[in-house]
Specification:
With about 200 residues, the chain is α+β, with helices and mostly antiparallel strands. It has two domains: about 5-55, no CATH class; about 70-165, no CATH class. The chain is about 25% helix and about 35% strand. The protein has helices spanning about 20-25, 45-55, 140-150, 170-195, and strands spanning about 5, 10-15, 30-35, 40, 70-75, 80, 85-90, 90-95, 105, 110-115, 115-120, 125-130, 135-140, 160-165. The protein has a four-stranded antiparallel β-sheet, with helices on one face. A four-stranded antiparallel β-sheet has the order 10-13-5-14.
Length: about 200
């Protein structure tokens, strides 16, 4: 998600777009490089730059993020953003580019129920997450997911309900025992049918 390259004098940081990043990066003296599609900072501001990226994305690209989780987000009141995307925990959920463009889902986002679409007028188009939409945000740092759950809000303040989906553990022994029982029963049924 966040990638840092360092030279003797600079930090070159690439990351997905987030609406809070440009203004905050500029306050740290960051310069946008269209050629490399990355922000360039003075290496002497490394700690501040890493803090900025950790605050927005939950990771600075350098420090291990801990475990990554899947976050299920319920937009029970819906959400929208004028001329931009809808963000949760630093991650873009979906983004329109115009009134009639429809909305594209970001990587690692799936819709469980509901829809994300474009709307508004030609000049004032919006990305809209319909009321009742449920999405899963994959590979989000657990720490950032816990912040989202505690806040109960999207990055722009829309009300949501979120929960971490813990992976289910598979009891392999129980499944193998069940398989053996089923195979034995199939053998019995085949013997009966063969008569």
């Amino acid at each position: 998600m966040v990638k840092i390259e360092k030279t003797e004098k600079q930090m070159i940081v690439s990351s997905p777009y987030h609406p809070d990043l440009p203004a905050k990066a500029k306050k740290l003296g960051g310069k946008w490089s269209a050629a490399s599609k990355a922000w360039i900072f003075d290496i002497r501001d490394e700690d501040r730059v890493k803090d900025l990226y950790r605050n927005i994305y939950g990771t600075d690209g350098d420090t291990p993020t801990g475990d990554l989780v899947t976050l299920r987000v319920n937009f029970f009141e819906g959400a929208s953003d004028l001329h931009g995307g809808v963000f949760v925990g630093g991650r873009c959920i979906g983004r329109a580019t115009g009134r009639d463009s429809g909305a594209s889902l970001a990587n690692g986002i799936i819709i469980i129920d509901g829809r994300i679409y474009s709307g508004g007028s030609v000049k004032n188009w919006r990305t809209v997450v319909a009321e009742g939409t449920i999405v899963e945000v994959r590979d989000i740092p657990r720490e950032k997911a816990l912040e989202v759950i505690a806040s109960g809000q999207t990055d722009s303040g829309d009300t949501i309900k979120a929960e971490i989906l813990e992976p289910t553990t598979i009891n392999r022994e129980a499944l193998e025992a069940e398989r053996e029982k089923l195979l034995a029963r199939i053998t019995e049924i085949e013997a009966i049918l063969a008569q």
